[in-house]
Amino acid sequence: MEVPIDEAGEEVGLAAGPVHVAILSQTCDVVQSSKPFILVAPAKAVPERDYHEADKGKKPLLIPLFDCWVADAGKAFSISKTRLSESTLVRHSAPSDQGTESTQIRASVARAFGRFPFPDDIPSVFNKLITRLQKATGREGNLSKVIDSIHPIRVRAADWGAESIRIIVYVIIDADEFIPNEEVDVNWSWERLEKKFGSKIVPSTLSLDDVCCLISKIHEDDRMSWDLTSLFHLWNYFGKLLSPKFINSDSCPRVQDIDVQVLSDKEFTYADYLRSEALDVEALSRSGLDPR
Predict the structure, then answer these.
(1) Which residues, at least 6 apart from 261, have a Cβ–Cβ distance to it below 8 Å?
(2) Residues 211-234: tens digit of each pLDDT
(3) What pTM did the predictor assign?
(4) What DSSP letter does each residue of the chain carry, written as one string?
(5) Where does residue 108 rank: exposed (0-12), middle (13-18), buried (19+ CB within 10 A)?
(6) Angle CA(171)–CA(176)–CA(177) in degrees, nearest 5?
(7) Which of 72-76, 186-190, 247-251, 273-277 is modeled with the greatest confidence?
(8) Could you tell me which residues come within 8 angstroms of residue 213 by beta carbon, excluding any fewer than 6 positions away?
(9) Which of 176, 178, 177, 170 is nearest to 129 (CA)?
């Protein structure tokens, strides 16, 4: 919608005058006369890369709407329905309230406002990993070439506040390139990749960048001819290299063990989802900081 901006919008950095916003409040709150205000967020066009990252959940405060337009939940503010009634409806972000597009938008709104506040001693465990992934996003490099195949990493602990905790890190890969165990060729060996690429491969010397390079080379082939068994082993090796090189359990004495599990988005169950939290740098708690 295109609405006139008053003091509420100006406080989040919007200039006075008409501006595009997306309604974030639920439909029932919009239609109920007992609720005079609704929540909106500035809507803006962003580069295709940013839109894709928002759609993948890697920019949780940007809610993908349509055609590279997003709602910036980080600048959400309340506005009266009276003022909104003076506005122009530009378009609906989904063709219906019950369709797939609508479901995806609801999930994005929930992700923006429902992120988990990790205890203060947990961020240091994952800071190096998060920094590495952030630097790769939208840039050149082997990790950048394969990062779109990785869903937002999720982490799980039985009780984040316990004196001793075991953390499971879920590295979730698109199912079209991470086949189930029963479909893996049992005769596979690293020699298959050596023959394909014409060079010697010593697994014990491979870095994360090396593994990403091999994955990206397979991606260069026609998708129908991908060597899925090789991708299975390479993605598992990717997970193996994350800890301890990029996950520092020593920084938090409460962390007794970290188990990195690589699985496809089809293998990752709804129960796994409910028991885990997205590893989002913006969600990491900093309760010790002065909120002013």
Answers:
(1) 168, 169, 170, 171, 239
(2) 999 999 999 989 888 999 999 999
(3) 0.70
(4) -EEEE-HHHHHTTPPSEEEEEEE-S-HHHHH-TT--EEEEEEEEE--HHHHHHHHTTSSTTEEEEETTEEEEGGG-EEEEHHHHTTSB----SSS-SSSHHHHHHHHHHHHHH----B-TTSHHHHHHHHHHHHHHTTSSSHHHHHGGGBPPPEEE-S-TTSSSEEEEEEEEE-GGGS--GGGS-TT--HHHHHHHHTS---GGG--HHHHHHHHHHHHTS-GGG--HHHHHHHHHHHHHHHTTTT--GGG-TTEEEEEEEEEETTTS-HHHHHH-EE--GGGB--TTS---
(5) buried
(6) 60
(7) 186-190
(8) 142
(9) 170
Q: How far apart are CA 199 and CA 215, in angstroms?
A: 15
* Residue 14, token pair as written in the block: 């919007």
Q: How far apart are alpha carbons 248 and 169 in whole angstroms? A: 13
Q: How far is CA 142 from the centre of its chain?
A: 19
